[in-house]
Amino acid sequence: MDHFLKQCEAAIGEENVLTQVQDQAPFLQDRRGRSQGSALAVLRPHCTEQVAQLVRLCLQYRVAITPQGGNTGLVLGSIPNCEKNVGSADSAVPAVVTSHAVILSLKRLNQIRAIDVHNHSITVEAGCLLQQVQQAALEADTFFPLSLASEGSCTLGGNLSTNAGGTAVLRYGNARELCLGLEVVTPQGDIWNGLRGLRKDNTGYDLKNLMIGAEGTLGIITAAVLKLFPKVHSQACAWVVLDDVASALQLFSLARENYFSSLSAFEIMNALSVDLVHRHFPQYQRVFKEGAPYFALLEFSSHEAASQAQLQCDKLIHSAYELGIIRDAVIASSNGQAQQFWAIREAISEAQAKAGGNIKHDIGLPISQIPDFVACAEKALALEFPNCRLVNFGHMGDGNLHFNVSAPLGQDATAFFLHQSRINQIVHDITHSYGGTFSAEHGIGCLKKEELRRYKSATEIQMMRSIKRALDPHNMMNPGKIFTED
Ligand SMILES: Cc1cc2nc3c(=O)[nH]c(=O)nc-3n(C[C@H](O)[C@H](O)[C@H](O)COP(=O)(O)OP(=O)(O)OC[C@H]3O[C@@H](n4cnc5c(N)ncnc54)[C@H](O)[C@@H]3O)c2cc1C
Fold first, then answer.
1. Is 471 helix (H, G, I), strand (E, B) or coil?
2. How far apart, in whole angstroms, are the C-alpha atoms of residue 278 and residue 283?
3. What is the DSSP code string of 376-440?
4. pLDDT under 50 in the chain at which residues?
5. CATH of the domain at 20
6. Hey, whose CA ends up nearest to atom 21 of ligand 1?
7. Is residue 466 assigned to a domain?
8. How many CB atoms lie within 10 A of CB 322?
9. Distance of CA 107 from the midpoint of ligand 1 (Å)
10. What's the pLDDT at 306?
11. 178 and 166 share one domain
């Protein structure tokens, strides 16, 4: 492999081929500390041509490639050799020797290439941080709506490769809906320039949408054309107290029926989610002193008159109260207070981590089924794991819940974790029976491969494998991710 590494150094400079353990460490460490991978080298190209050159070298030497952006993914997708089970996506395809894997970091491809104000689009390189793209849009007096708690460290290439969701999906859609065109380096090392800024283009198979959400298994995204929107002129936020999930569904329907064009987020949180935040982040003040089974966080935003969003938020809360759907509510009186509401919502994941970890889920359901699902899953879990605690929160308006399960109070979390696969199965089986999915946002990576096999039909998996084989016959691109080995 020395010869391979020397050629990589010649292509991108010695300083951009990291082979020392200490230099590689941050690239090989899983965000949640669950696993660590290994790689021959971390390669840091700075332009699309260099990416293509490196891919051709990897193909020549049969070195597997794991593309990496900000390494904020939550399913061990961006790290090679992070589990024993790495190998061929298909038994008919010879496996790349997986210890011969490199991380191809896209972070130096970080230029905003162009903004076309009248086409309402921006062309960015894959390694741009999401926050950098949001900022570039604002500076051009426009708005890029994708927003995640990891936006200061995740990249656009990663967002597209995982089809990221976040807090603005209800209004603007997820990463897929925000993308007009892509530039991709194929597993053969060719450059596909699909950087078209078109809203309509019916010219054969939709390769762009095949690459989005492919988790680096079909090629390397090097740049993208993204949609821009008018800047929001008014925003309003409400923190609502609810009796249960059924009331949340009623409130969501009322808001959608009456204020569809301005409702931009609808999040729910159960009592324990919020309690954990206040226990571990005492700097956040409670919105209500008294507890309640559920809370919702609603956001309205309007491109129209400055007071429009506030007006609609007020009206909704008033009628929901009159109809007996909600117990109480606070409408944020300032941007600062709205930010505090969001800070509580966004601190839930970290608060859970501080509380000793729990068994996480990222499920998607038809919105209408959420109350029945929650009731059914709570009952099933209580039956087998009495006193286990649910940290149920998420993007209810998108049908996406983080239905997480914590150990009973006083029980050792490590012992509880031994039941992880059974708990996953209970939650995912019930999700499936309600027409849902086990992964609404985070993807498959290494962690959800068994679920993919369990819940997708054989026909669907076969079609996916055929695409993988056709585009990447040597299984060079991120082997060991998405597919199980059989
Ligand atoms: C605090 C926190 C909050 C989060 N909130 C959300 C949320 O609300 N919604 C959500 O959807 N996710 C969320 N995530 C998950 C994560 O941030 C997203 O999945 C994000 O889109 C990953 O971007 P990244 O640049 O870090 O990608 P990475 O983690 O580096 O990679 C993710 C996957 O994409 C592939 N990949 C990366 N770049 C490329 C490329 N250029 N070409 C081809 N493949 C590539 C990798 O191989 C890997 O399979 C959150 C994570 C954290 C830590």
1. helix
2. 8
3. HHHHHHHHHSTT-EEEEEEEGGGTEEEEEEEPPTTS-HHHHHTTHHHHHHHHHHHHHHTT-BSBS
4. 84-97
5. 3.30.43.10
6. 159
7. no
8. 9
9. 13
10. 66
11. yes
What's the domain range around 171? 112-230
CA atoms 208, 214, 220, 226: torsion sign: positive
User: Is 187 found in the same domain as 263?
Assistant: no
Q: What is the pLDDT of residue 92?
A: 37
- Position in ligand 1 atom list of the atom nearest CA 214: 44
Check if 158 has its Cβ closer than 6 Å to any atom of ligand 1: yes
Examine residue 455 and state whether it is found in any structural domain, yes or no. no
Q: Check which CATH number belongs to the domain holding 240 and give it.
A: 3.30.70.2190
Task: State the pLDDT at residue 486.
Answer: 56
Residue 441: what pLDDT? 93
What pLDDT is attached to residue 156? 98
Whether 179 and 212 have beta carbons less than 8 Å apart is answered as yes
472 in a structural domain = no
Quote the number of domains for the chain: 4
* Nearest protein Cα to ligand 1, atom 46: 78
The pLDDT assigned to 356 comes to 80
Answer yes or no: is 424 within a domain: yes
Report whether residue 157 contacts ligand 1, using a CB cutoff of 6 Å. yes
Res 31: pLDDT: 83
Quote the pLDDT of residue 86: 35
DSSP 306: T
| pLDDT of 298 | 97
* Spatial distance between the Cα atoms of 260 and 30, rounded to a whole number of angstroms: 39
